[in-house]
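# nightly structure sweep
# worker-07 picked up a monomer target from the shared queue
# config: single-sequence mode, recycle default, output format = structure tokens
# input follows
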Amino acid sequence: MKITNDKAGPAFRSGPGPDNRGNIIVKEIYIVLTDTGTVLSKIIRRYTGCPLNHVSIAFDEQLEEMYSFGRVQQRNPFSGGFVKERAGEGLLKDAQCAVFRFRVTEDEHRRIRGRILEIERERHRYTYNFIGLIGVILNREICRKRAYFCSQFVVAMLATAGIKITDEPAWRAQARHFTQSSQLEPVYKGPLREYVAPGNVVTISPRRGIRARLPRVPFRRAAS
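# output follows
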């Protein structure tokens, strides 16, 4: 995926450079919002009014290393927990998405990814925080050890490196709060499987927002 710009304004740049916190960045983290089409996502959509309610965090532009909390077994809606997701497969096969980029230092990247890999090694001890979703509706924190819902997980992982991209606490974080964050750079909006297809070019216009030029190419499976 190549990110470029049209004639209306500057392109988002990859690679080392200052971020809006005055740090020298060398890494990028991607926040991915999707509509998984599950019953739970439809219920959440009715409450939030946001069409994209599943939140994931990825460490590469092609989203080959992407993590979240969600359905572990595709056919079992109650099998929630830590998941390493594959863009364009399973519940994400036909998902619409919005992709955002966040620039971090090497140390921040190491701390966030390291914490996620710790959870992955002990994923059998973690579960989906269904009760926590009720707390969001009631505006009341419901504490559970080793349990997250997707947006709570992403905010909590960023917090391990002292990064705060929303004023909402992790237990109250919703997908819409990511879209409202001034610290996230929008990269793409559209079908997820087209984003990860080879050779795609995303054009960003300050006046018209995000639009994608997507050639018709076969879908490429993400690496395991």
